[in-house]
Write a structure and sequence with these properties.
The structure holds two protein chains of two kinds. By secondary structure, chain A is α/β, with parallel strands linked by helices. Chain A is built from 13 helices and 13 strands. A seven-stranded mixed β-sheet of chain A has the order 1-7-6-5-4-2-3, sandwiched between helices. Chain A has a four-stranded antiparallel β-sheet with strand order 10-11-13-12, covered by helices on one side. In chain A, helix 2 packs antiparallel against helix 8 (about 330-370). By secondary structure, chain B is of the alpha/beta class. In chain B, helix 10 (about 330-365) packs across helix 12 (about 425-440). The chains are: A alpha/beta, B alpha/beta.
Amino acid sequence: MTITIDANEVDRRLLMDRSLAGRRAFTLPGSDVPEQSLPDSSLLREDVELPEISQLEVIRYFSVLSQLNFSIDTNFYPLGSCTMKYNPKINDELSSLPGLSDIHPLQPDETVQGAIRLMKDLQDDLGEITGLPGVSLAPLAGAQGEYAGLLVARAYHASRHDEKRTIAIVPDSAHGTNPASAAMAGLEVVTVRSDEQGNVDVENLRELVNEKTAVFMLTMPSTLGLFEPNILDITNIIHDAGGLVYADGANLNALLGLVKLGDLGVDICHSNLHKTFSTPHGGGGPGSGPVMVSSELAKFLPTPVAEQTDHGYVLSQPAMSVGSINGFHGSFSIVVRAFAYIKALGCEGLKSVSENAIIGANYIQSKLKDKYSIVADRYCMHETVLSAANQKKRGVSGLDIAKRLLDFGIHAPTMYFPLIVEEALMVEPTESESKETLDHFIAVMRQIDDEIDRSPELIFDAPHELPVKRLDEVAAVRKPVLRWSPEG
Amino acid sequence: MKTLDNHPYIPATAAERVEMLRASGVDSLDGLLGDIPVEHRNPKINLDTGLSEQELSELFNSIASTNASPSNGYISFLGAGSYQHYIPSTVRSILQRGEFVTAYTPYQPEAAQGTLQVGFEFQTVTCQLTGMEVANAGMYDGPTAFAEACLMSVRVTRRNKVGVLTTADRRLTDTFVAYSKYQGLELVEISPDITEIPKDLACIAIQSPNFFGAIEDVERLTTVAHSNGALSIVHVNPTALGMFKSPGEYGVDIVTAEGQPLGVPMAFGGPYVGLFACKKVHIRQMPGRIIGRTTDTQGRVGYALTLQTREQHIRRERATSNICTSTQLMGLMVTVYTATLGKQGIKDVANLCYQKAHYAASEIDKLNNFSIEPRGTFFHEFVVNCPVPPREINAALLKRNILGGLDISDRSENGMLICVTETILKHDIDRLVSALSEIGSSL
């Protein structure tokens, strides 16, 4: 029988299927100490089933796999609320410098003065940018930052013997981590509506606040890409009721140098360094989610916090700290990259980041809103939420459009989020992209809209040009295959 | 403050900005910012002006040079949750691939098959090492994986007391306490030689090798747990699994680990990656992302995120965890590391750690004023009982460019926890031993 080899087929065999007994990719040095006796053999194992392949095969396997990905380095990636901006290469280099990448987290403070000073300087910069001067870099991602912030809020109320405050008010447009973090912090989640302009329904909020309100969680700008125009009223309403205001800083890329959250009455916020501050997302992390609070709340911050004392820089535990939420001091090598980013841009550069991000998003919105509807006809901040409701009426969903975009080498926008927008496509271009790229995206989006009437099959079957076509995600759930096995 | 023009990270020119603003129907940026209260707009931000790349490089090199590290002549015997291992060139090389580094979470599987297949390989490696049936695509770090495992045992058993062995690292229990503060749970400390446990425990959580470096009797403790309807959770050191029996062989229900020893730099504590594996029966209670194999419309193999109804973006406040962005890139490092070391290399590195640590322990034990605390079989960490508080010993070692072991006098009188990995040469161990000898005799 002749086997036909498909010229376009990528070899997707797993490492274990490429393994051949006796091959090696690496050798270790021999032991240079006198032989020590081994423990009782009943404690020891035979083999670990790891692959046996050559060094070239390791490199080629992973290199070829990498080429199956879209990434910022290779594609426009307008994924809303994810801030897929350029990740400067120098930052990767700096974070892997000897003296930063090879220091142990439990070294005595006096042997890591440079590292702690860097943390302190970044804390100060983030405090300055947000107007919330108490900062801990400990949280390992946005969701941990949220959780840490909520622990701070609870500790604050507890310190005032005000423990009946067990409700978190969350807008219906919020990211899923907000209610999930609130639940982890033992808070009951109450949802406040958005009005037809996409703002928090202030009257509804007034009805919901009471003596049990612990915290109001607000994404700034909102997941609709809108700046909340009633923010000063909102923070007053919450404060008058004795609650605290938490700002989810996932969208901080819109605010640098334009407004400080602390000035608006926000008490607590977090920032995703892997969004606004350009650290690479890594295909799903590592992240870093520093938490920033008002001076009054600083004593509750998670440990550690970097401080400058008469004896130099130290890592310390705040007086009434909510404790340690992970192993060591946070994502240090991400912190290094974010600090390098701030240093490279400086005060004026950071402001320019937000200005250009906002200009780009509004440009896209203005060029597409005749084809794709928007929630309210108003200017957006750094992202715009388009709706494919008109396209849906013609038989094509937001998902179909997202998949068709992939054929043009453009990553899909965030789909079906926020939940309150029908067929939502959330587009965030970021300041990194040139006008030519934005124009190309606009042209492609308009062409796809045309295709609905001319050649809809192009859209229903998309993507056509990728390593795989649409995947059967239902089958993946029904019969989960989650690892290699010898049976295949 | 004037707007900066033409920063290398921002391509739009002044003319293009004007053009885009006009297309949007405004004359200036302020026209787009009407929703920001005018009295708070454009505040003064007290930051320095931006640096060129060369200045940046100089600044960070000077910061890095002030830290004591192996690269500037220090030898370190610190472990306790973060370990110095040799990282093969393959790991560093693949980590240069921007296609991996600058991708987002694989929400569009057709455009993320590289990330997804690597994640599937990572789950496979986690299972092969731990001897477990299923694994997720990674947690933030070891301690958060451990804390999530304890919370998962509560969900599975519907009991609210979590038993943790007294020999576990306090970083594990502290993280659990922070994670469970408002869950109405109780932490119960359990002695390693316990034979009976309260009937209402959700789990016995064991660290093995434990904080002091010693191997626990996982088999017996697992039997005790199971005979009382509790789960058995084991937090392992993955390097030790190149040598010691896997938790899977003992019937353990959930296994967690700090993945950092498998190719991830120490980097002052992060980012790392938590390994998380369990029995298949508990899969729908697992936290975090899971990658599954499936097929496309033409029957070709592909990978996608799966079982997502456990997660926060679907289930919101009823999710198994709030975790979203995790540590996929560290998972890639672990996957390249284990593929590179392979079946033989993982054994070799474990054996080298064992040999060198035991040599160090036997040499230190010969010294007059120092002794090794007897705690049974150990892997690559052990406790030295010092004649004076360890901080005094460490101060004297530091003068000799040696970062001594961790001062654990809060847990063991004058105890110092020493770790020796394959990166430490015999010559370095001998330097430590003679330094301790000198310091001891000068007391």
